[in-house]
Batch of 2 targets.
Target 1
Amino acid sequence: MFNASLKQLSTQLAEKKISSVELTKAFLQRIEARNTEYNAFITVNEELSLAQAQVADQMIAAGQASQLTGIPIAQKDIFCAKGWLTTCGSKMLSNFVSPYDANVIERFNQIGAVNIGKTNMDEFAMGSSNETSYYGPVRNPWDVEAVPGGSSGGSASAVAARLAPAATGTDTGGSIRQPAALCGISGIKPTYGLVSRYGMIAFASSLDQGGPMAKSAEDLALMLGVMTGFDARDSTSLQRETEDYTRDLEKPLSGLRIGLPKEYFAKGMSKDVECAVEQALDEYRKLGAEMVEVSLPNSQLSIPVYYVLAPAEASSNLSRFDGVRYGHRAKSYGDLNDMYRKSRAEGFGAEVKRRILIGTYVLSHGYYDAYYIKAQKVRRLITQDFVDAFKQCDIMMGPTSPTVAFNIGEKSSDPIQMYLSDIYTSAASLAGLPGMSIPIGFGDKNRPVGLHIIGNYFTEAKMLNVAHQYQLVTDWHQRSPV
Ligand code: GLN
């Protein structure tokens, strides 16, 4: 049951072989038994989960079920969920019980999915290793000495350890794809604007995008169908026809042109990762795809550009939390200012403070043009590179992460090394393009390797097709560490 696909679970529920309450209890017990080892969940609430499971069973009995009705889904603790503690991995929100649902949560509730718990994450989604969480580091189920990646590390760890059939994540510069790669699972960050950011606590609003994390591409397709759709409460939400993301899964890949950005294969990637990527590309050749060399000349600037723009947006977003926590007690403006300062000093961890410092600096008078405006211009060039390259190919591939999972503590004192974890993922984020990671084998110390698949705008169905066809002929996605 713990290894079952979403489709299999759905069939078992429909055929009444198991009820949602039974399924939910089974996963809650598994979390209870194993979460201390992985620290993948911040909050588990049996009462709330079982109440949802009961509603799901009624929907199934009444013939109102859709495919994910009654299935437990782990929710990243960045999504506000009514009645649930919603911390975003921060002390700042450690007593915040959300009075409302994020759009993503609403969508899962509407179809009768069960929230099985809120997953651990880097504080305010800032990190690549899940070590910045106020709730302590998450461990990688393949090796508890290793990080799970971040910032959606709790979700990745939970799915890999089979503590949940699937989970949600968010990705600003790589936070769905990198932890998916490091934990040996599948994850997709959709085109910017497809998933509403309403109630999804902001990190960098022009980059943040929610998406699913699961065992397989087929599971991702079902999850994505629930998560996407127009929402007037998010001003960047896109108004588009609803899509069935499973529609192209079975299409053969013959004639598919896979672009290999030469900059992603040049240097930086470790030998074991390179080896697994080459083998995966061979598999795609066998499936009838042809490889085309493409170039993304400005992509080497994506990390510096990202670390100007993301902190700039974050520093503006985060100032609101000071207001939430202390603002109402202020008697004067000076008073308020003191409170803000105190709140920042006490409420945020070191990485968040570093980002606020960078963000405030690049937005300040005298530096704004040199850093912020300059970064916006380079962002445009990075985007244009993709537009040009997609004239020669249908999809792009490369490594998701330059290395397999590193050890807890290995990079936490070296921000630059940590930031370089997203060297392959941040360019697609800056361009607003969809990106995905699927498991393709194991590297050093038997730790998982992920393949990065970048699609053109709105080609999620094609990307899922490309991933699914690979998963039909390989079994990496079915391996589990426990
Ligand atoms: N690792 C990157 C950062 O620390 C990206 C995080 C994310 O995508 N949320 O900002």
Target 2
Amino acid sequence: MFRLDGKVAVVTGGYRGLGRSMCVTLAKAGAHVIAADVLQAEVGQETLAAVSAAGGKGELMKLDVTQAEAVDEGIRELAKRLGRLDILVNNAGIARDNLLLRVSDEDIQKTFAVNVTGAINCARSAIRLMMRARTGRVVNLASVVAELGNPGQAVYSASKAALIGLTKTLAREYASRGVTVNAVAPGFIDTDMTKNLPQDAKKYMIEQIPLARIGQPDDVAAAVLFLCSDEASYITGQVIRVNGGMYV
Ligand code: NAI
């Protein structure tokens, strides 16, 4: 079940957090994984070590998803070298939380540049190759707050809601070419993005979760693996919610 043998997968933001867990999970299932990120290579080495420890194969690609030309070059080069590109996981994301009235112009631009334009840049380059092969999988990382809202996350939640619109439209545009496009919307997951929240904020969040625990990166990676697998070939344009029941 859920094997990806012989497939090539790009995971943006793959050097740490959820992205790292996705790289390990996809590689364990047999994919050759490219972790693409802006962070320094030493951080990515930890992802590669985890991929190898799981018996998988992978490599690092220094990539800023906001730079459309570099994205296109990077994706073309790797597809040429490896002979294919089957999976794109648009996981790179940033959150600059603040109440709306305190949000700076730079916060708005940067959040949309990474979360939305970055995903569009990567999808455009990857889908061009996938549609020629008449097969492909794109998974976009949305968030529970896109549908639930959350005070302090106006800009972030707007950017994640944009990814849901992107997902549904791309699903319709490329279904006839064999490319599926879905979103995974995580709830409150234990990563660097959430570890610095004050204890009382964490306690409050957990109280809102029917399954009464913070999610783990592997909970999210499992949904990504399923959507990338042959078993999910009849699923497109959907939002899979991995949130412990926080939004139902
Ligand atoms: P994280 O901050 O640990 O990892 C995000 C990764 O994206 C980092 O490696 C970062 O360097 C990379 N990145 C940032 N800007 C980039 C750029 N311009 N180009 C390439 N890579 C870039 O965050 P985490 O928690 O692992 O989140 C992963 C995704 O899941 C994000 O899209 C986030 O919004 C989403 N998410 C996370 C939740 C959580 O509770 N942790 C909940 C809902 C959604």
